[in-house]
Amino acid sequence: MMEINLLFSIDDHYIEPFKTTLYSVYQNTPSALLHVFVLQKQLLKKHAEIKIFCEALGIVYDPVVIGERAFEDAPIADRYPETIYYRLLAHEYLPKDLDKILYLNTDILCLNDIFPLYKMELGAALYAAASHGSDTNMTDLVNKLRLQNFEAESYYNSGVLLMNLTAIRKEVKREAILDYIAQNSFKLFLPDQDVLNALYGHLTIQIPDELYNYDARYNVLYYARSKGEWDLDWVIENTVFLHFCGRDKPWLKEYHGRYAALYKHYQHRSRKVGR
């Protein structure tokens, strides 16, 4: 059976969204053994709950405890909490024999098999990620001007990140990241995502967002882009990752977005695991 490595970075406030995301991956990727690594500052209070949840699904769970002092010398502020470094420097804490891992945010729902993405050959590239813009999009151009990364194909969303750990260990250095943040903190809006784009955007392969990072806020734009093809049925049948970007999150009671019922279905099913 094919083994797929998954990476998350959470604290105790995001246990349930994490479980919903992981459960949705499990349900839609039946042919693989899932091995999940969870970056955390201290061992999560609900460590035992996560362990029981994963064991019930046959998922291998490895907590990766960063520790209290790992980033005590890093530039940190309200807008730049130390957790931003976890994803950027995950390779320093993951087992050295891992060559590839798929990072996912916890505001993501998996609708179809992730294996076609995971088996993608990355070559010398560090990452594969999707963009929510293009060169014809003013936001994309503004981001390139802001970060001065004109070699990059686009501005990438880091919520879904296929990581080539073999290449990352050679290319991504802690000092370069800390220096960049210290020197450019005034122009960083989404710190870890901005750093990834500024320093490594040119070493990232672009993957289609309608399949691998569908922004749930903009279904009308996707529908228009596809001239009416990417409707609700198409998304359910083809999209792999539905991403609930922005402040409105689907686990909140007041959320009434287009995909609310779909999310709540997986949330409900995940709550039954291990009981």
What would CATH call the homologous superfamily?
A: Spore Coat Polysaccharide Biosynthesis Protein SpsA, Chain A
Strand content: 15-25%
**Which residues form runs of ≥5 with pLDDT under 50?**
140-152
Count of folded domains: 1
Query: Which radius of gyration do the C-alpha atoms yield?
Result: 18 Å
Q: Quote the CATH topology.
A: Spore Coat Polysaccharide Biosynthesis Protein SpsA, Chain A
Average predicted confidence as pLDDT: 88
What overall form do the CA principal axes indicate?
globular
Order of helical and strand elements: EHEHEHEEHEHEHHHEHEHHEH
Q: How many strand elements?
A: 10
Largest sheet entry: 7 strands, mixed
Structural class computed from helices and strand pairing? alpha/beta
The neighbouring-strand order within the major sheet is 3-2-1-4-7-6-8
* CATH classification class: Alpha Beta
CATH architecture: Alpha-Beta Complex
The helical percent reads 25-40%
* Continuous helix count: 12
State the end-to-end CA separation.
Answer: 27 Å
Summarize the structure.
The chain contains twelve helices and ten strands. The chain has 275 residues and is of the alpha/beta class. β2, α2 and β3 form a beta-alpha-beta unit.
How would you sum up this structure, described in words?
This protein is α/β, with parallel strands linked by helices and 275 residues long. It has a single domain (2-271), classed as Alpha-Beta Complex (Spore Coat Polysaccharide Biosynthesis Protein SpsA, Chain A), CATH 3.90.550. It has helices at 15-28, 47-57, 84-88, 115-118, 138-147, 165-171, 174-184, 191-200, 209-212, 219-225, 232-238, 260-271, and strands spanning 2-9, 32-40, 60-65, 100-104, 108-110, 127-131, 156-164, 204-207, 214-215, 241-243. Helix 1 (15-28) packs across helix 12. The longest helix is centred in the N-terminal third of the chain and has 14 residues, at 15-28.
